[in-house]
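Supplementary Data S3. Sequence and structure tokens for construct A.
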Amino acid sequence: AMNSTLPYNAADVTGASDSDTIALTSVTDGAELTLSGAVESMSLDVNGASRFDILEFDAATTSVSIDAGAALRVDDTLTGAGVTTYTVTGAGAVTLTPALGTAVTSYAAANATGAQTILAGATNITITTGSADDVVDMGATLTSNDTIDLGAGSNTLRVDIEGLTAGATDLSISNVDTLRLDGINTSGAIQMDNLAIANIRFDDATAANLDGGVITLTDIATTSTSFAYTGGGILDDDLFFSPVTVDYDTTTAIAAATFSISNGGLVADDMVVGAINANNVTAITINVSELGQAAADELTIADVVADNMTDLILTADGAVVFSGIDGDILDTIDFSAADGDVTAQL
């Protein structure tokens, strides 16, 4: 777990294509490694599970290869101002949660069988992953200039939607099973034309002012019918979710869509959800779990707006208040699976 600085002899690394390999075996949590010297290509040969607080490459290093025979994790700081490419192979899980760096244009892990968990922190980047269940966090940098292909497995793409706008150009995203939208405290939008993503998740439920903005999913595919509002998993926490507009790219009705509201595994306190606007959906099901169990705890949904909605179904483990339900052709309301009182304003 010691902190190590390895400075290369300047006379030995004067070339333009110097390379070296660092073998890692059982580095324990808290270690720091700093590589100093103009070595253009660095390889990390991970033979035993290794975990760093800090991993620093020299500014002259442009490419990093990771042979993950075992797990590699970097927790706090990953520095490499000149690194443009990461190449990852092997069955070990690679977790790089400090941002890769703004200069990175390629994270190539298509041949890796270990799970990749990375924070990109770069624009105009190409990311490919392999056969495991991968999680790629694009933060607030996602644009149509990025190319993301997460391969096989059950994969999650995270995006901070706060402040993003839906551009006219389609995004280049494939093999993503869950789109997790973080940073939903104010307005944001994402262009979802051509994205066949089954599950969409709204996180970061800290928007106390529900009038602060609306999250809009534009031109969403008809295959995207499962939406989850997920709190931070803090016991007895008040949850506030921003309003969401689901804009389907179709003129015909979608048979059904489900909106699930929970607190990440722990019982919440009160929950407040801004308006759910989902036109072109025939049947809307709202599933509520982990709602606070005190007598005064309740979920309040500001409004449900759906011009094609004929059926509204609710399951809940506590009291629910609909401040408004706006459905011109609504003919069936089923609250029979709600365990608490339900109040609805039509």
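Construct B, processed identically:
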Amino acid sequence: DPRTSPHWLLIGSSGSGKSNASYRILGDLVRRHPTEIVITEPGGVGWGAAATATNTREIAQTIINVQSELERRQSLLRAADVDHVQDLPEPLPYLVLVCEETETVLDDLKMQDRELRTATVIALRSIARLGRKAGVCLVAVTQAGSLDVFDSHVRKNITNTLIFRSEHTVGETWRLGGVRLQDLPPGAAYSVRHSALVSFPLTARPVLPQLAQPLCEADGIPVA
């Protein structure tokens, strides 16, 4: 239920099945709720034409723009004196930000623009911490779940965490007990929330609803 548990973190090595799981999760979400999707993916190979941003700077700016949309929605909540976008006189759809390979983007920004990298990390943390009431959901799909982005303060707000086949260091970070992540077959994941293994069957990439209007930057200028 995105009203109570809006955020997802999918961690796993390449080929472990995390992108396939995201297809299933997002497909179910759009069938159940009014939803708009923003997808950022380096290279755009996995999502094809559905990807909103595919190069490092575009991805960083898109994440920051989603934070600006979160702040715009917060102003609407204050004006209407309600605590969730579904309770507004004119309810807003959920806005889902899909971030593929977050570490890759941030590593590139270390070389290209450290100031933009810092702004991107701040935006991701803000979305994870404050997105629920504004109906802004984060689906982060990554190979490592590094602590400089997904630290303990952020992780406690991401209630849906799935860890697929991964190196042993991921398990050490997440304290998963006796589960051998390196032995998981493709499509199988450890649900941190349920302390149990789950499995995702092969799923076709869903057709997802795009934004009805462009995101706006902080100064209110629409982004094409």
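The helical segments are 18-32, 56-80, 102-112, 114-134, 152-155, 168-174. DSSP finds six helices and seven strands in the chain.
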